[in-house]
TrEMBL record:
SUPFAM superfamilies: P-loop containing nucleoside triphosphate hydrolases. InterPro entries: AAA+_ATPase (IPR003593), ABC_Ni/Peptide_Import (IPR050388), ABC_transporter-like_ATP-bd (IPR003439), ABC_transporter-like_CS (IPR017871), Oligopep_ABC_C (IPR013563), P-loop_NTPase (IPR027417). PROSITE patterns: ABC_TRANSPORTER_1, ABC_TRANSPORTER_2. It comes from Paraconexibacter antarcticus. This is ABC transporter ATP-binding protein. It is a peripheral membrane protein. The lineage of its organism: Bacteria, Bacillati, Actinomycetota, Thermoleophilia, Solirubrobacterales. PANTHER family: DIPEPTIDE TRANSPORT ATP-BINDING PROTEIN DPPD, OLIGOPEPTIDE TRANSPORT ATP-BINDING PROTEIN APPD.
Length: 362
């Protein structure tokens, strides 16, 4: 796998040094009958204008909860929040329902994982896109319909004007996802969140959807948060990567830093579990042993400690997320091992991976 990122420059009017989104100390917990679920803990990151930031990790790592909290979609009587999230001067975590309603869709939009359940099955596609536009702008319905046509053409839907009268079930999975992207872009948001946008799509359609996201980023200068578990998707499109485990960020850095110089053992395990086309046949892939921790009762210290073959006594203390490699101030991780030790121990069978006795067949 050879990532070849080609980040586009932000529009000239945008200040590249001024982040579009600043998340600081975000925490999300839910009260349940079994106890408090700490879904997200002390998460901090930024997204710049025209930048694609990927959040990766196993199911249950907290990546989708993080994204949905920015949209205000995790609010409920049993939810508790901490920290802040500033989008272009607007506070998202502490915003009222009315404030969020004005921002959501207009300044921040989301493409959900399953477009079939995200679109209303009894309303035509055109009506759903137009409703989104009219909710935020006072323009004639005819103008909103014209914009819907232009948006559908922009994301590659043929015969867009005729397809406005189609229902969701009359579209393929890939075309429904394009409709979701068109709807998300209908009011030119500053930030687009794509939550597993290529799940359950074949690889050809995946490539088309990723190309659409990249093109739209280049054309509009919008920031993009891509939530995914697929590191192949990340290598194709992301500028920076956040690796989450147990509700926390365990490593963050640029695409090259994460793929060529990963510092956290969990990242080694994710990279090592990817089959390579140029690898020998019949070779066993190193797998991450065990299962993700219960967020009801997370392990003391490093959350990855029970599954980590490199764990030692100090791992009983939670390591801070800091830069540990000289010359890479933006490459941060939560691991007490020294960088030189990490580089020596992350090699398994000639490639980056997690040293473990548990293996799976490639």
């Amino acid at each position: 796998m050879t990532p070849d990122p080609a980040p586009a420059a932000a529009p000239a009017a945008a200040d590249a040094t001024d982040p579009l989104l600043v998340v600081d100390g975000l925490s999300v917990s839910f009260a349940t009958e079994e106890g408090i679920v700490q879904a997200v803990g002390d998460v901090s990151f930024t997204v710049g204008r025209g930048e694609i930031v990927a959040i990766v990790g196993e199911s249950g790592s907290g990546k989708s909860v993080t994204a949905m909290t920015l949209m205000g979609l995790t609010r409920s009587p049993n939810a508790r929040f901490g920290g802040t999230a500033q989008l272009g001067g607007h506070e998202l975590v502490g915003a009222s329902a009315d404030e969020l309603r004005r921002v959501r869709g207009a300044e921040i939009a989301m493409v959900f994982q399953d477009p079939m359940t995200s679109l209303d099955p009894v309303y035509r596609i055109g009506d759903q896109i137009v409703e989104q536009i009219l909710a935020h702008e006072k323009i004639p319905k005819a103008a909103a319909l014209d914009r819907a046509v232009a948006l559908m053409e922009r994301v590659g839907i043929p015969h867009a004007r005729e397809r406005l009268r189609s229902y969701p079930h009359e579209f393929s999975g890939g075309m429904r996802q394009r409709v979701m992207i068109a709807m998300a872009l209908s009011c030119s948001p500053q930030l687009l969140i794509a939550d597993e946008p290529t799940t359950a799509l074949d690889v050809t359609v995946q490539a088309q959807i990723l190309e659409q996201l990249r093109t739209l980023r280049d054309e509009t200068g919008a920031g993009v948060i891509l939530v995914t578990h697929d590191l192949g998707v990340v290598a194709d499109i992301a500028d920076r990567i956040l690796v989450m485990y147990g509700g926390r960020i365990v490593e963050q850095g640029t695409l090259d830093e994460l793929f060529y110089d990963p510092q956290h053992p969990y990242t080694w395990g994710l990279l090592g579990s990817i089959p390579r086309l140029d690898g020998p046949l019949g070779v066993r892939l190193p797998a991450i042993p065990g299962t993700p921790p219960s967020l009801l009762n997370t392990p003391a210290g490093c959350h990855f400690r029970p599954r980590c073959p490199e764990a030692f006594d100090r791992c009983g203390e939670m390591p801070p997320l800091v830069a540990r490699s000289p010359g890479s101030p933006g490459h941060c991780d939560r691991c007490w091992l020294e960088p030189a030790t990490k580089r020596a121990q992350r090699e398994t069978d000639g490639r980056i991976g997690l040293r473990t006795e548990g293996t799976v067949i490639a």
